[in-house]
Design brief:
This protein is of the alpha/beta class. It is 44% helix and 21% strand. It is globular.
């Protein structure tokens, strides 16, 4: 048997002492701690906080919508008391948008004033209101509600009164046939359930197809909008909102033919498509000075592109960089960028190329930090020559980009 040394005895004493202390220690001291209860409490507290946040958000939303509904109800009550029973109010926060119609001879400013007087209303937009001619109806003549075609994205809803079920089917099928600029289906969801058939109404044959075509032209440029046709007042009203001057101009051009067609059958247009807020207009002196400076910088030069392309060359970009100096100095002056071509090639190709080149200049300026809302790109093709197209020198002068300073 091995002999116990003093060191061995001392170690055994220490072990016995530690064991006694461990057994005598109260719970939670000197023993491993189980952290599972703590984790459970943390998860519980996190869940309570999440539920509180969700209910708070719901309360805010419900509360906001409740406030808006109250504003709408009180605004419409004020409108009725003022004699505008066919105008409705829609609230977005404390801002009220008016929609509907009023009789010729009434003062629309009075309707706006009636809503402004409502406690809590901060602003009023009456661009969605149209006027109805105050004409006397012939005996027995039936007047229906205006027809409204309203869209959001690829969904469109039709409401109002039509004279026959065949007209409702026509509208449904015509909307389904509309296409985007890329050739895909414009509307994948079409709802005509709110259309009412009223016997005795005058036929819509003269205008219904033109109205649907107008919707197609506007919906290609507006994510949300509407077209309302009021046969009794012979008024067509459009609504929507564009982000840039260019978008607004493109919509005007795209819908011009359909508006003319509706005008030819007796309708006037109330344009409720809102463009971007206009900055303070520049002074005439600023416009003239910028016009002179741009003309001096570009005299004898051209904004150069690759052959038969809208891709800028290095020379072209260098000239645009020079033009940016005065453009930034007179930042309040809007600019029309006009593309032109010579007569080589077809007129259709020349027009298309001149548009793309004008747009390429806008893109370049925007990439350099300029406001896209300031510019309007226009293509004139070969319709505005400044030199003889029978010579190479003349054709070079005609292939050009012009910069036109605008007053508004």
């Amino acid at each position: 048997m091995a002999r116990k040394t003093k060191t061995t005895k001392r170690l055994q004493q220490l072990d016995r002492t530690a064991a006694k202390r461990s057994s005598a220690a109260p719970p939670g001291f000197g023993a491993p701690v189980d952290d599972e209860p703590a984790a459970s409490w943390a998860a519980f507290i996190a869940g309570v906080i999440l539920i509180f946040i969700v209910f708070t958000a719901m309360a805010v939303f419900v509360g906001t919508r409740s406030i808006e509904a109250d504003l709408e109800a009180r605004s419409e009550q004020s409108l009725r008391l003022a004699g505008f029973g066919d105008i409705t109010a829609e609230a977005a926060g404390f801002a009220i948008s008016l929609k509907g119609q009023y009789i010729e001879g009434q003062d629309l400013v009075s309707a706006e004033g009636a809503v402004v007087a409502v406690s809590g209303v901060r602003s009023v937009d009456a661009s969605g209101v149209w006027v109805v001619a105050a004409t006397k109806l012939a005996a027995g003549e039936i007047v229906g509600s205006p027809v409204t075609l309203e869209w959001t994205g690829d969904a469109v809803t039709v409401s109002g009164d039509l004279s026959a079920e065949e007209q409702r089917v026509f509208v449904d099928e015509s909307l389904a046939a509309l296409e985007t600029a890329e050739g895909s289906v414009l509307f994948t969801s079409i709802d005509v359930d709110d259309v009412q058939i009223i016997e005795g109404l005058a036929s819509e044959d003269e205008w219904i197809g033109k109205a649907v075509a107008l919707v197609g032209s506007l919906a290609n440029g507006l994510e949300e909008g509407s077209v309302t046709v009021n046969p009794a007042g012979e008024v067509v009203t459009t609504s929507g909102k564009t982000e840039t001057r260019q978008e607004k101009r493109d919509l005007v051009i795209a819908s011009e033919g359909f508006i003319v067609a509706l005008h030819d059958v007796g309708f006037d247009l109330t344009d409720g498509v809102i463009g971007p807020p206009k900055p303070p207009p520049p002074t005439r002196e600023e416009v003239e000075e910028l016009e002179r400076t741009l003309a001096e910088l570009i005299e004898g030069k051209v904004v150069e592109f690759e052959f038969a392309s809208d891709e800028l060359t290095e020379v072209g970009e260098t000239l645009l960089d020079e033009l940016l100096v005065p453009l930034r100095e007179f930042a309040a002056v809007p600019i029309e960028i006009a593309g032109h071509a010579d007569t080589q090639g077809s007129s259709e190709r020349n027009l298309e190329l001149s548009v793309r080149r004008a747009q390429a200049v806008v893109v370049y300026f925007v990439e350099q930090g300029e406001d896209p809302n300031r510019f309007i790109a226009v293509g004139y093709g070969d319709t505005r020559p400044i030199a003889d197209n029978s010579t190479e020198e003349g054709r070079q002068k005609n292939r050009r980009i012009e910069f036109i300073a605008l007053e508004e």
